[in-house]
Amino acid sequence: MGEQAATTMQWSDEGVILSVRPHAETAAVAEVLTRDHGRHLGLIHGGRSRKARPVLQMGNHVEVSWKARLADQLGVMTVEPLRSFGVEAMDDPAALCALLSMCHLARALPERDPHPNLFEVTLFVLGFLDDPLVWPALYVRWELALLDEFGFGLDLSRCAATGITTDLVYVSPKSGRAVSLAAGEPYKDRLLSLPAFLRGRSGNGVQTSDVLAGLDLTTHFLNASLFVPRDETLPEPRSRLRALLARLNAPV
Amino acid sequence: MARKITGPEIERVIHLLARLPGFGPRSARKAGLALIKKRHELLEPLAKALIEAAEKILSCQICGNLDTQSPCNICSDEKRDGALIVVVEDIGDLWALERAEVVAGRYHILGGHLSPLDGIGPEKLNIPSLLARVRSPVIEILLALSSTVEGQSTVHYLREQLAPSGVAVSVLARGVPVGGELDYLDEGTLAAAIKSRRPLA
Questions:
Q1: For A127-168, what is each residue's pLDDT tens digit?
Q2: For residue A26, what is the domain's CATH number?
Q3: Residue at which a domain ends, from A58, A83, A108
Q4: Which of A102, A113, A173, A186 has the fewest CB atoms within 10 Å, counting from its CB?
Q5: Least CB-CB distance to A93: which of B149, B156, B191?
């Protein structure tokens, strides 16, 4: 990538808008998660104009062109809309929180480091944000994919103690590996619970309580491997998402 | 370094003008020149007006508006509808609504929207004073925040906060602007317009 970046100072790619900051009076600096160029920033001339603003909403899927004179410059970006996920999710509080949370979490990725898998997963999850029965479980999987990209992926395929692949109900908070019911019994107070939908391909509807357990699982590892070492806390929309889903789950 | 054309006093005027929105160094120089040329008609009255305004500007204790009195002109206007509070992000939004004369309620200035990116959390917004205002005769809160992802996220947050009070909460419509041709609209706006279509009575 480094060599490639040094030679190509112009590219076109697909991306998802992660953030937009105003720059001077009419321009904006956009941060985009692109397929082949990773999390990339660029200056957008007229980025605060009436025409550009609907396109430059967080979570929107766009076609990006980037150009700079030298590879390490901020460079100039132009974006063309592909699909307005951000606008589509605006009316659903939980989906909007999930979208904002994804944008904020993805900002933790190193700049200009390609993560094509995560990009595909991101697009996939964004595409389901209009279906409240589907996206919460997908969102948890997205966070697991994010951890994977950072090299802190969880190994949920077999029991860390016995090696068996059935009855996996716990995750070790230290190693991030699954633990079976029998092996984990003595330590169950210290283990994190592994919801059923993360164990295999359960096609049936995932319960909100399972999603919450999944979020608690990823919260632990996001904090332990990403945020605590950086002396940061989970982004506010992520915390709000957990609270919103918990309220949905509360008995009426 | 550029050669100095004027004395430090005038340079300072130009320097300060250049910090205004819509002004750059060049336009500030132009405005500064106009001011010093029309010293008696423009510069002196402007200086006086600025000093007077600076001495009297107050932040309204009720809504957060800036005015020369507190409560501000709008909050102390008896003719306004006390049942409706329009929540806006900024004083500029209040001015826009007042210019259009489309709503006769009272206002509440939030002071921005939730933006974790800029470190703006709920505690930095004017929310407690809004919650404190929700009592009789208020029956409706109109959340007139910007139609951006972050603006709408703030709307959802406020709706949650306002829910226990039982007050009616409304939001602005989204869709085709006046003079908007469908051909030129972005797909997000079109989708919103289709979603919030209404039957022709």
A1: 999 999 899 999 999 999 999 999 999 998 888 888 888 888
A2: 2.40.50.140
A3: A83
A4: A186
A5: B156
On whether any CB of chain B is under 8 Å from the CB of A42, the answer is no
**Looking at the complex, does the CB of residue A97 fall below 8 Å from at least one CB of chain B?**
yes
A99 in Cβ contact with A86 (< 8 Å): yes
- Its domain, for residue A6, covers 2-83
- CB contact under 8 Å between A100 and B152, yes or no, is no
What CA–CA distance (Å, rounded) separates A63 from A78? 8
3-state secondary structure of A216: helix
- A53, A236, A239, A241: which to substitute to probe chain B, counting the most B Cβ within 10 Å? A236
Per the CB < 8 Å rule, is B148 touching A57?
Answer: yes
What's the number of domains chain A is made of? 2
A38–B contact, CB cutoff 8 A: no
Count of A-B CB contacts under 8 Å: 65
pTM of the model: 0.88
Q: Are residues A23 and A64 in the same domain?
A: yes
Distances (CA, A) of A117 to A19, A36, A96, A205: 20, 10, 23, 25
ipTM: 0.86
